[in-house]
Amino acid sequence: MAKEFICIVCPRGCHVSVDDLGKITGNQCKRGETYVINEMTNPKRVLTTTVKTIFPEVPRASVKTKEAIPKGLIYQAMALINQVVIEKEMHIGEVIIPNILNTGVDVVLTKEIRRKEER
Amino acid sequence: MIVDVIVIGGGASGLAAAISVKKRNKQVLLIERENELGGILNQCIHNGFGLEVFKEEYTGPEYAYKFIEEFNDLKIDYLLNTTVIKLVKNGDEFVVTISSTAQGLKEIKAKAVIISSGCYERTRGQIAMPGERPRGVITAGSAQRYLNINGYMVGKKAFILGSGDIGLIMARRMHLEGAEVLGVAEIMPYSNGLNRNIVQCLNDFDIPLYLSHTVTNVESDDSKRLKAITIQQVDERFNPISGTEKRFEVDTLLLSIGLIPDITLLDDLSVEVDQKTKSSKINQAYETSVPGLFICGNSLQVHDLVDNVSKESSRAGNCTADFLENKFKPRKKINIIPGKNILYVAPQYLDFGWDFTDLIISFRSSKKLEKAIAKVYQGDNLVYQKRRTFVVPAEMETISFPYQELNDSQDIRVELEEL
Ligand SMILES: Cc1cc2nc3c(=O)[nH]c(=O)nc-3n(C[C@H](O)[C@H](O)[C@H](O)COP(=O)(O)OP(=O)(O)OC[C@H]3O[C@@H](n4cnc5c(N)ncnc54)[C@H](O)[C@@H]3O)c2cc1C
Ligand code: SF4
Question: How far is Cα B336 from Cα B353, in angstroms, rounded to an integer?
Answer without folding.
Answer: 16
